[in-house]
Amino acid sequence: MSATPVPALRFDDPAVFGRVAVLMGGTSSEREVSLDSGRNVLEALRARGIDAQPVDGIPALVEALAQEKFDRVFNILHGGDGENGVVQGLLQALGVPYTGAGVLGSALTLDKIRTKQVWLSLNLPTPRYVRLDRGADAAAVRAAARSLGLPVIVKPSCEGSSVGVSRVMDEDGLDEAIALAARYPGEMLMEQMVVGDELTVGVLGDIALPSIRIVPRGEWYDYNAKYIAEDTQYLCPGLEGEDELRVRELALAAFRAAGCSGWGRIDVMRSRATGAPYLLEVNTAPGMTSHSLVPKAAAQLGIGFEELCWRILEQTV
C-alpha cells in the first residue's frame, strides 16, 4: 500500500487559478480551528505564486463575490454553514468553483445520523445508534443506553472537532453527557462505543491516503488532543498488509456512498476484540493545522503541504 500511485500535477502555472478566496473563520464552534487552517492554506498557496486572499465568513464572501473580486474559493470554513451545503449551494448558484464536496455530500455528512442511515442501507459497517431529540427525558436516555449496552458515546449530530462529545461508561454519566450535547443545535446521537484503535483515512480525489492510527496520551482523542496537546502519537500507516488495504477501501466506499468528492477524511474505529472496522463520520473540510491528519497522511506519499493545497485547488479547474 505504500506504493499508492500519485498522479502528476495537472497544472504548473499559478495563473490558471485566477484570484482565489480562502474562506475561513465564520461563526461556528470551530471558528478558531478554521482560522488556523485558513492561515496555513493561505501561506501555502501564496508560496506557490497563487493570488490568494483571506475571507472571514460567508457575508464577507457574498460581498466580495458581488464585486467580482474572486474566481474560485478554497473552502476551509469548518462546521456550520461551511460544511452543511449552504456555502456550496451559494457558490454553485453563482457559478463559482470551490473546493471539497458539493451540496449533497456536504449536507448529508454534517448530519452524522443521516450519514449512518445511508451507510447502513449499503451494508457498510458503523456502530449501532439511537437518535435522541433535544428534549429527550431521562427515562428515554437510559432506555437508549440499555438498548445499545454501555459504554456509549453521546454527541451532537451536527458538530465536528469532538465538540460536545462524551464517553459514558455507566448510567451515572448520562445526564451530564446529554446536557453537554444539548448545548448545540439539532438532534443528539448515542452510539455504541467501539473499544479499540482510532483510525482516520484521508481522501484526495480518487486516492485513499495511508491510514493514521491515533494514540492520545489521555483516554481518548478529544479537542485538546486534536489541537493543543503535543504528545499525541500519529502512526502512519496505521495498519499493515490486508488490514490497511481493507480500511482504505472501506473509507473510499463510505466517502463515495455519502455523495462526497474532492477531498475529505473518514474517521474509523477498529475493534480490538475482532479487528473489524466501523465507520464513524466524514469530514468534508478537514483541518489544515499543524496537528491535522490529512497533511500527515499525504506526506507519507511524498506530497508536502504546499503541494497538497495545490492539488486540492486543482480539483476546481
Automatic annotation (TrEMBL):
Keyword list, A-Z: ATP-binding, Cell shape, Cell wall biogenesis/degradation, Cytoplasm, Ligase, Magnesium, Manganese, Metal-binding, Nucleotide-binding, Peptidoglycan synthesis
Pathway where this protein functions: Cell wall biogenesis; peptidoglycan biosynthesis
Domain ATP-grasp intervals: 116-314
Primary location class: cytoplasm
Catalytic activity: 2 D-alanine + ATP = D-alanyl-D-alanine + ADP + phosphate + H(+)
UniProt-annotated binding residues for Mg(2+) 2: E281, N283
One BP term from GO: peptidoglycan biosynthetic process
Annotated InterPro entries: ATP-grasp, ATP_grasp_subdomain_1, D-Ala_lig_Van_CS, D_ala_D_ala, Dala_Dala_lig_C, Dala_Dala_lig_N, PreATP-grasp_dom_sf
Superkingdom as given in the UniProt entry: Bacteria
Any one of the GO CC terms: cytosol
Alphabetized PROSITE patterns for the sequence: ATP_GRASP (PS50975), DALA_DALA_LIGASE_1 (PS00843), DALA_DALA_LIGASE_2 (PS00844)
Cofactor requirement: Mn(2+); Mg(2+)
Active site residues according to the UniProt entry: E30, S161, S292
Documented EC number(s): 6.3.2.4
Family: Belongs to the D-alanine--D-alanine ligase family.
Function: Cell wall formation.
This protein's name: D-alanine--D-alanine ligase
Protein source organism: Pseudoxanthomonas suwonensis (strain 11-1)
